[in-house]
Amino acid sequence: MSELVFIGLGLYDEKDISLRGLEELKDADTVFAEFYTSLMPGFSIRKLEEMTGKAVKLVSRRALEEDEGQQLFEAAKKGKVAFLVPGDPLIATTHVDLRISAEKRGIKTRVIHGASAVSAVRGISGLQNYKFGKAVTIPFSEQGFVSETPYMVIMENRDRGLHTMCYLDITAEEQRYLTVKEALQTLLELEKQKKEKIITPRTLVIGVAMAGSPEPTVKAGYIEEVINYDFGAPPHTLIFPGKLHFMEAEALVTLAGAPEEVREMAE
Fold this sequence. Notes:
By secondary structure, this protein is an alpha/beta fold. The chain folds into two domains: 3-112, Cobalt-precorrin-4 Transmethylase, domain 1 (3-Layer(aba) Sandwich); 117-265, Tetrapyrrole methylase, C-terminal domain (Methyltransferase, Cobalt-precorrin-4 Transmethylase, Domain 2, 2-Layer Sandwich). The protein contains ten helices and twelve strands. β8 and β9 (176-177) form a beta hairpin. The longest helix is centred in the C-terminal third of the chain and has 15 residues, at 180-194.
């Protein structure tokens, strides 16, 4: 029977795949993987192939989006296909589209979930998951154009007392990864235009790097400090806190190096 199994790889290296995912991978006739939606800093295709005895074929963004996944569907007609995706397979809308397209073609689909930056970054920040509002991506500033969307989302969430998780843009094919510093510089430029006092040097932020790795970096503080902090290698993520519970404030001070006065911000 034709089958396409979406398997989450987790966040850091080839050891992050679940035992169930590993079993499904070993049982597959063909294995594909993509790495354009996220960065796994410690991942080695060679080591994964040695672990499983399976050859892994890389697929590009074009193959999945412009060619609508035909390469995967053709292979699935002949047997079981494992499709490896960083993080959790269905966080990226592209892969939801692929699953829908497969089912419409009569190809059975299943999902083996993996650790996601959504839960990892929020958890390691010390903030409570249920207090996050809408998330947003801060894109690269191309040819002087700066998207206003991140600024507006942060403002809307703040008005509701909610935290904002900001994904930082990546272009995997060019090995370009937006940093915390670049993202904050972009938002400060938007503040000059909007003048709503949403993003100021004294705005509290949390920067996270290498979530899911053995040594992640988490730093909370005011923008004037965090913008020059050395977060090291990507991927980076930004969080703008809303109203803080006293436990959240304590976590930011104790676990993320926030100024002691942050405790006084708790409600």
